[in-house]
Amino acid sequence: MDFLSLVDLAQSVIDGLLFGSTYALIGIGFTLIFGVMQKINLSYAATAVAAAYLSLVLVNVMPTPFVYITAALAGGVLGWMIYLVCFRFLPINNPHATLLSTVGMLLAIEELISHVTHGMPLNYPAMFQDSNIEFGPFFVRGDLLFVFVLGCIAMVGLIQLLKRTRLGLATRAVAQQPVAAQLCGMGIASTNVSTFVIAGLLGGTAGAMTGAAVGVLSPLLALPLTVKGLVVTVIGGLGSIPGAIVAGLIVGATENLFQFMRGVSERDIYVMLMLFVFLVFRPGGLFSAPGGRD
Question: DSSP E strands: which ranges in the chain?
Answer without folding.
Answer: 122-123, 132-135, 138-141, 216-217
